[in-house]
Write a structure and sequence with these properties.
- There is one protein chain.
- Helix content is 15%, strand content 38%.
- The chain is mainly beta.
- It has a domain of 125 residues: Immunoglobulin-like.
- A hairpin with a 2-residue loop joins strand 2 and strand 3.
- The chain binds copper (II) ion (CU).
Length: 358
């Protein structure tokens, strides 16, 4: 797995133009996600974590810049993205593999939920809720049929719980307060245990006050590898892309363009992308240049994989695709709801690229 880049080492100061780009990311939510704005406003959240109420793309702001100014902003974003591909511009590395130990035949993981600040785009930090101080949380990975135990510490000021999205667990491990368990109150620890099945790309997330808690980052990937390799699923690279649309606007793995991770491959290599949507809106992910071969839906292998160039991922869904890097170049890779990806100020939000080298 190489879902993440190396640790950023330097605090980056806010850059005025990038602050504006983050602002526009929020504006996109205001236009395309009207329901989202209403919902979060009704819930009294997020007051401080989104600029969407302060900016309206229909107000005429889009025409205030000259063509030259728009191009300059666009160019600067691309330059920042390419710099980020070499040396991350933001603090905080998401989805790090979670260490485990085997105790009496059970694979044991440990998660700690806490309230942190998370840097989404350079200089833009938001109040987040995180497992092990990562947004999204660390990667839990195991093999189908393994018994796993996850010890959860709640260091937040709110109660929480964890639902194992896609897993066929015993009912009392399903993670819904007052339905299958008591809530995990602040300052307490709770332990889940189940046999990991079925195989595939799954997720774990809070199931308490989940609009706020999942929106702010209490989620992560759960990959259950099949006992035997599946023909046609071989790849040289394996990446998780978790889509979200609350904390800091539209994000891939907790970061918005230009801080999104670029994916790299050599000509002829196969890349597996595992899409997971933890957001409140659909996100059709479009890759320039090459087809995406869809091999699984919600973890289940498809009997007849199919090729397409845009994969529409609804909230809660997972799709795994294989891409063969056929030609060198920088191939842009983005959500095709354009208000999630590009505005007069250039690209923002759910945009990344597949960089193919000879
Ligand atoms: Cu989108």
């Amino acid at each position: 797995m190489s879902t993440t880049a190396t640790d950023p080492t330097e605090e980056q100061g806010p850059r005025p133009s990038l602050r504006r780009r983050a602002f526009l990311a929020g504006a996109g939510a205001g236009v395309a996600g009207t329901g989202l704005v209403a919902f979060t406003a009704a819930a009294g959240w997020p007051a401080a974590s989104n600029a969407q109420d302060d900016h309206d793309m229909s107000s005429g702001d889009t025409t205030e810049m000259t063509d030259e100014e728009m191009l300059a902003h666009h160019k600067e974003g691309i330059e920042q993205f390419l710099a980020n591909a070499e040396d991350p511009l933001t603090e905080g590395v998401p989805i790090q593999p979670l260490e485990s130990k085997v105790v009496d035949g059970v694979r044991v993981f440990e998660l700690t939920a806490s309230e942190i600040e998370w840097e989404v785009t350079p200089g833009e930090k938001y109040e987040a809720m995180a497992f092990n101080e990562q947004v999204p949380g660390p990667l839990i990975r195991c093999t189908e049929g393994e018994r796993i135990r996850v010890i959860v510490h709640n260091e937040m000021s709110q109660s929480t719980s964890i639902h194992w999205h896609g897993q066929m667990v015993p009912n009392d491990q399903d993670g819904v307060p007052f339905v299958t368990q008591e809530a995990i109150k602040p300052g307490t620890t709770y332990t889940y245990e189940f046999v990991a099945k079925p195989a595939g790309s799954h997720m774990y997330h809070s199931h308490n006050n989940s609009t706020e808690q999942v929106g702010k980052g209490l989620l992560g990937p759960l990959i259950v590898d099949p006992k035997e390799p599946i023909a046609g699923h071989e790849s040289d690279h394996d990446h998780v892309l978790i889509l979200n649309d609350a904390l800091g606007g539209f994000t891939i793995n907790g970061k918005g363009f230009p801080a999104t991770t670029a994916y790299k491959a050599k000509v002829g290599e196969k890349i597996r992308f595992r899409y997971m949507n933890e957001g409140l809106a659909i996100h059709p992910m479009h890759l320039h240049g090459f087809p995406q071969e869809v091999i699984t839906k919600d973890g289940w292998p498809l009997p007849a994989p199919y090729k397409c160039d845009t994969v529409n991922i609804a909230p809660g869904e997972r799709y795994d695709v294989i891409v063969t890097a056929e030609d060198p170049g920088i191939w842009v890779f983005h959500c095709h709801i354009l208000t999630h990806a590009e505005g007069p100020d250039g690209m923002f939000g759910m945009v990344t690229a597949l960089i193919v080298e000879e």
